[in-house]
Amino acid sequence: MRYILSRSLQLIISMIIIGLLITLCLSNFIESFKMANIPANGLTNSYYTFSIGEYKDKITKDKIILSDMLTFLETQKSKLILLKESDSKVFGVYSLGYTFSPNILSGRTFTKDDFEKKTNTIIVSESMQDKCIEIDGKRFYEFDANYFEVIGIFKPSDNLINKDAIAYYNLSSSQLKSKNIIYDNYIFGRYQIDAGDKTLEIINQLNNYCTVKVSRSSTDNNFLERLQKTISSQGLTLFPIILTIILILLNSVNLSSNWIENRRKEIFVRRLVGATDRKVSIMLLRDFFIVISMSYIIVLLISMMIHKIDLVILLNFKFSPETIFISYTTTLLVGLISAGLMMITYHKNSISQIRG
Fold it and tell me: pTM for this structure?
């Protein structure tokens, strides 16, 4: 083993650099892929997204407004969380049977009383505190022609793919009004609803009540969709991985040739004592993968040290068993291609031509 390592110094250094680059880049990519499967705003994967406004006949005929829809949801006797979206990432929230509980840093979250008494309240993220205004010792936040009293400050989740809203206001507030004269009825807009395994049933009841258009169901967000989200957000992370692999493959012939050259005396002696090309090939492949595995152990130790000191390059992502397994497998696959090129080089330069 000591002999193999002493003759493989160049290969070991190269594989350490390769493995380190792959591991660090994949750590971001894999963690992002996992985040793509975690919904924002504390919802579960059972949530649906729908919109109200494209089909207005029932709403216009029956003069349905937002408070009517919330009352209708109460009659369903199901636990649920309803969020109303906005392009500014300030969401309305209404909860039945659940406590809407983001990571509150100060103050409090919404209570059952807030929804029942239709209080004009809001909780804002820590980054939005400076945008609040103070009146008579109370803080307020302005959104869409409404002034909400700030009752709590929260910290959004660390999910960088599915990001939380920057603020949540009480959707049952009795003072809601819109700047948009076309959608002056506050019921119009995009919503997210999560009622667990009863979500689809609630959606169907809502559709019968006021006609909704579903744009996302619990069957969405499959593997390919999550992969697409991850690639779109981590394209810059994938680039160095692909570039590294291309450079490795381009340099593989030279790397493997040098490795064989460093061991030419050993190969010559083995041929003299009767070793066949097949036996020599098996020996070289075995040693090659031993070197790769030894190199990856060093890579793993270095990566853990980098993670421990929390370097900026990791973007606060954590290493996981998935990261270790996938990065090691990727390193092995690159090594396998390199080993194949090495064997081509070996058979091109017939052992019989190697001289001590």
Answer: 0.74
